[in-house]
Specification:
single chain, mainly alpha, 5 helices, 0% strand
């Protein structure tokens, strides 16, 4: 952003430049993460990611992806606010959404856990004990249960911590 003592930009232009800076920053961080993880962004690779998320996080993976995307954007916005932007952002709605994410993510993970435990019991009761297929399906449902609980807890921790940073920075 161009800074000059005699040049005053309208608030709308300042907020647009702040959002552009945020998008550039999270794009750079995303590219670094993709390069570090040696991850190919292709349709086949994205299909594998979707299968992985379905296998280990369960039916709640779209909710967790949307929440993680918002938290990732909020982290970028906070970094821009602290290091780049001269105009302060109104964080009230963002902190409310982060508070909601900190509360909702563990519960969504827990509901997914209960749903997968129910599926595990249904699979077990339908096929009967003693068959390897039943045991594999039963254990597979437990991996989804643990994966969804872990995902919800990690996202809640990020949202809670980021909200605390924002609120302490506003003081």
């Amino acid at each position: 952003m161009i800074k000059s003592n005699n040049l005053k930009l309208p608030y709308g232009l300042i907020s647009i430049s702040r959002e552009i800076n945020t998008l550039i920053l999270i794009s750079i961080i995303s590219v670094i993460i993709v390069m570090w993880a040696d991850f190919n962004i292709s349709f086949d690779q994205l299909t594998e990611v979707e299968a992985f998320l379905s296998k280990y996080v369960g039916i709640a993976w779209p909710f967790f992806i949307v929440t993680a995307t918002f938290i990732f954007w909020a982290i970028g916005a906070y970094i821009v606010e602290v290091f780049i932007s001269t105009q302060k952002r109104n964080w009230s709605l963002i902190t409310k959404m982060l508070d909601w994410a900190a509360e909702a993510c563990p519960y969504v993970g827990l509901l997914t856990t209960f749903f997968t435990f129910l599926n595990a019991l249904l699979v077990y009761s339908k096929a009967g004990p003693g068959t390897p297929e039943t045991q594999a399906a039963f254990i597979g449902q437990f991996s989804i249960a643990f994966g969804s609980s872990i995902s919800g807890g990690i996202l809640a921790l990020f949202a809670f911590t980021l909200k605390a940073l924002i609120v302490s920075g506003e003081r």
